[in-house]
Amino acid sequence: MKITDSKQVNALKALAVSPVVALLTMLAPAGVHAAEAAGAGPTVQIAKTIPANIKTTHAPDADPGHYQVLDGTHFSYRCYVPYTLKTKEAAVEVCEIDPVKLQILGWPETEVIHLIRGRVTVTGPGGETASYSDGDIFVLPQGFQGIWQQSDKLLKVVVRHPLFWKD
Questions:
Q1: Which residues of 57-88 are buried (b: 16+ CB within 10 A; e: fewer)?
Q2: Backbone phi and psi for residue 144, each to the nearest 5 degrees, phi listed first
Q3: pLDDT number for residue 62
Q4: Any idea where the domains of the chain sit in the sequence?
């Protein structure tokens, strides 16, 4: 099922904000960002760019139980983490991801994603698709199975929980 009705799309976008608020409300009291501890203030501004010194990570073409790259693409990205809870339960990342097509076998984290730049199409196990682009916010739930496909580089801000990949 492809959602094309603008009212349905807007309703889904509105629903995506609720999990963001709930997740941050639940987890925020558990940690203090290093900037706050150093006296920089009670909030952390998240830049919508990747610092030039962040190197590209070339992930394996397969992570058993989690993903497999498809169609000769490779999974490479640049991410920085401006905020992590002290408990290491959740983090905010800003990531630039090169074009890739992934068969997601069972995603180990919930990701609340805000696309800053780019386009991605996500296809569920039943063939239902949703496409997202600049400015969209959506949730990739823990345990998701399906296809993640992007033909161009994208930039996203993401809240991840629980942290499976901790490096």
A1: eebeeebeebbebeeebebebbbbebbbbeee
A2: -55, 140
A3: 94
A4: 6-161
CB atoms within 10 A of CB 147: 16
- Determine the Cα angle at 72 with ends 144 and 108, to 5°: 20
Report yes or no: 144 and 104 within 8 Å, Cβ to Cβ: yes
Residue 129 CB coordination number (10 Å): 14
Cross-sheet strand order for the sheet of 62-63 = 62-63, 67-69, 100-104, 146-150, 119-123, 129-133
> Residues in the chain with pLDDT < 50?
1-39
The CATH code for residues 6-161 is 2.60.120.10
For residue 122, what pLDDT is reported? Answer: 98
The alpha carbon of residue 72 and the mean position of all alpha carbons in its chain are separated, in whole angstroms, by 22
Encode pLDDT of 17-61 as tens digits. Answer: 444 434 433 444 333 344 343 445 689 999 999 999 999 999 999
